[in-house]
């Protein structure tokens, strides 16, 4: 596959092979110490192309926010799902991520003919599907899903978690293990929305000291 291939051309390979409804799926929030993991599924029109759509990690927050409503408007179908920290602690983050992805796919108003999944895990997801490693930088559909998932999770951190637990600064670190976040954790201890299974090393280190 040519490195010069743009994200839309990657997707068009499947359309040319007879796929009518191609869904891209991605997640946001696997790594944070707190809060839910989000996933989005997006089906774009076969002839749609927008150069600005790219891996959400390569875009500024302002750009992601600007693209969010455009993707929702242009998509033939989209859905966003989340699995909270309690379930993450119960079934682990990988299984929780797969659950969020499956819920997003199953919530689409159009049944996809093919699903492109970012990463290398597709267990429990509807068939047919294809894992695409680094897919958010290769497939326009996956990139669009990455933007929806990232913006939805960031808004959840700013509009829900930050208001419920203002002392933790969720609007800044979004739950990720930044130095400031870890310092707050050491001072205040975990909040009800922290992933207890993610804090064992941090808390054990503090106890050892």
Summarize the structure.
With 209 residues, the chain is α/β, with parallel strands linked by helices. The protein has helices spanning 7-16, 61-74, 85-91, 93-106, 140-164, 170-173, 179-188, 200-208; strands at 22-28, 37-43, 77-83, 114-118, 129-132.
Overview of the molecule:
With 209 residues, this protein is an alpha/beta fold. The protein has one domain (7-208): Nucleotidyltransferase, domain 5 (2-Layer Sandwich), CATH 3.30.420.10. It is 44% helix and 14% strand. It has 8 helices and 5 strands, in the order αββαβααββαααα. It has a 5-stranded mixed sheet with strand order 3-2-1-4-5. A hairpin with an 8-residue loop joins β1 and β2 (37-43). The N and C termini lie far apart (52 Å). The mean pLDDT is 92.
Shape: elongated
Q: Can you tell me the CATH architecture?
A: 2-Layer Sandwich
Describe the largest sheet: 5 strands, mixed
How many strands? 5
Low-pLDDT runs: none
Mean pLDDT: 92
Helix/strand/pairing category: alpha/beta
Under CATH, the homologous superfamily reads Ribonuclease H-like superfamily/Ribonuclease H
Number of helices: 8
């Amino acid at each position: 596959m040519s490195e010069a291939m743009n994200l839309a051309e990657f997707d068009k390979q499947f359309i040319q092979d007879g796929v009518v409804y191609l869904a891209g799926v991605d997640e946001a929030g696997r790594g944070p110490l707190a809060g839910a993991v989000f996933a989005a599924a997006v089906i774009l029109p076969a002839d749609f192309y927008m150069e600005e759509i790219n891996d959400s990690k390569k875009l500024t927050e302002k750009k992601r926010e600007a693209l969010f409503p455009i993707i929702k408007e242009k998509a033939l179908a989209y859905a966003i799902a989340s699995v909270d920290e309690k379930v993450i602690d119960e079934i682990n983050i990988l299984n929780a991520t797969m659950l969020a992805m499956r819920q997003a796919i199953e919530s689409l108003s159009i049944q996809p003919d093919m699903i492109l999944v970012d990463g290398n895990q597709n267990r429990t997801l509807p068939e047919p599907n294809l894992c695409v490693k680094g897919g958010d930088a290769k497939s326009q559909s996956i990139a669009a899903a990455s933007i929806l998932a990232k913006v939805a999770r960031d808004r959840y951190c700013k509009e829900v978690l930050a208001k419920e637990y203002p002392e933790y600064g969720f609007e800044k670190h979004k739950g990720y293990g930044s130095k400031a976040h870890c310092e707050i954790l050491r001072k205040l201890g975990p909040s009800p929305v922290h992933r207890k299974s993610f804090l064992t090393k941090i808390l054990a280190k503090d106890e050892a000291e």
